[in-house]
Amino acid sequence: MTRKARAGTALSRRGFLAAGLLGGAAVVACGRSTPAPNGGTPADAIAAAEAARPHTGKTVSARLAPGPAVLDLGAITAPTQAYNDQLPGPLIRANVGDEIAVTVDNALDRPTSVHWHGLALRNDMDGAAPATPEIAPGGSFTYRFTSPVPGTYWAHPHTGLDTDVGLYVPVIIDDPAEPGRYDAEWIVMLDDWTSGVGSSPEQIYAGLRSPGMSGRGHMGHMPGMGGESASDLLGGDGGDVSYPYYLVNGRVPAAATTFTAKPGQRIRLRIINAAADTAFRVALAGHRMTVIGTDGFPVVPTDVDALLLGMGERYDVIVTAGDGVFPLVASAEGKNAVARALLSTAAGSSPPPDYRPAELNRRVGTVDTFAATTEVQLPSTSDLALHARLSGAMMRYDWAINGRPYDQHVPLTIQRGQRATLTFANASMMFHPMHLHGHTFQVIKADGSAGPRKDTVIVRPMQTVTVRFVADNWGVWMLHCHNGYHMDAGMMTTLEYTG
Ligand SMILES: [Cu+2]
């Protein structure tokens, strides 16, 4: 069964409809912090890793103020939480080697953190406890770090269920030496949205965790009722939550943002999936996309008609703009809904908000489609085998790694200089976008050839995905599913350096 509830206040056996309301839900705290090995994180080991990064001597400063905000999403307004009253929050942009200094003033009523997703940065600035302390309500903290590689990144809290509110910003690291092979740049952030307009993330989580969810006879869940469809790309179920809205750059489809360019211009799209529970299939009507990179690392340029992005993944693509108005459509996989924005290069009208371009069903790029360029491929040998068995079931909502939820986790351990093979073995019937902090890994395809370099990779139901990485960044690093609800339910462990 792969269907979700359709309407009303239904909790279903397989899913939760965020438009509904549940009374009396409680916030469930996430897992405990784990002490670092060897009595703490040696400052010299972190300093050594930092010294190995390039440094320009320049500092780029920014301020983020996470706090309550009433956001205009187009046809609706949402009382929620956001950075600096914007959705997405303000772009943070620097060159490779610049010091990035971001002061976070926490105006939320709860602790927060800012995790710099995908950046192989110093461990004490990662923005995930225990490596970096959380910021208390009313408190302030300045993250200072440099990025060793260019690319498309983003930032979000690593605290509780705050990945499902309006707290996210794009982070772009430029390489000044990169030849400008495009005329314009379009940053595209995708999201699934309920905060302030449907159930709160805490209500959704309580509903998903409710032991009575199965067989309690709530309305709504019957196979075929919902107009929902299974996702072949994801190997079945598209997610746990049906959202009231799906957004591109903070707007609903009926009030989409428009990116203006000239016909014939080469546009670099930087597509970021900031959703909590939704994978998106993205296509630009009337255009092919040339994929040039993912998760901050170049791939051999490859043409596709559409692209699959799990939560936390990024893709960089080049399109040559046609003449007219073209919807960029992000189809919520298995959820029968779309998000969209518009590319406009000439006068014209756009199709209706629910329009689905034919490109969505042509050649869809997934992780298996791409390969890292040879200069960024990692060595093909390894001297350590690490394993992450992914388990859990929707009805029990007991997501775990190696049989343990985060509050009982056994760290994966590694030593500096080791080259590790990490095998994700998915023993569940749900896809999991697995994310490793502080490193990027080389995906190894089923035939043994090199896939792309990534920090977040979709592992389909019952699939095994093998990746390889080099232990060059001392610390205590999170390894987790980027489904915000799976993560909070315990699908997280740590990678810890022991020497
Ligand atoms: Cu998951």
Task: Describe the overall structure.
It contains 3 helices and 34 strands. It is mainly β. It folds into 3 domains: 16-21 and 185-365, Immunoglobulin-like (Sandwich); 53-176, Immunoglobulin-like (Sandwich); 374-497, Immunoglobulin-like, CATH 2.60.40. The radius of gyration is 21 Å and the shape is globular. Mean pLDDT is 89; it is low at 1-14, 19-39 and 214-227. Bound molecules: copper (II) ion. Residues 399, 432, 481, 483, 486, 491 line the site of copper (II) ion (CU). Residues 77-177, 186-340, 389-495 form the Plastocyanin-like domain.
Low-confidence runs (pLDDT<50, min 5 residues)? 1-14, 19-39, 214-227
Binned strand content: 35-45%
Mean pLDDT: 89
CATH-level-2 architecture of the largest domain: Sandwich
Number of domains: 3
Largest β sheet strand count, sense and barrel closure: 6 strands, mixed
Instruction: State the helical fraction.
Output: under 10%
Strand order of the largest sheet: 13-11-15-20-17-18
Instruction: Give the distance, in angstroms, between the N- and C-terminal Cα atoms.
Output: 47 Å
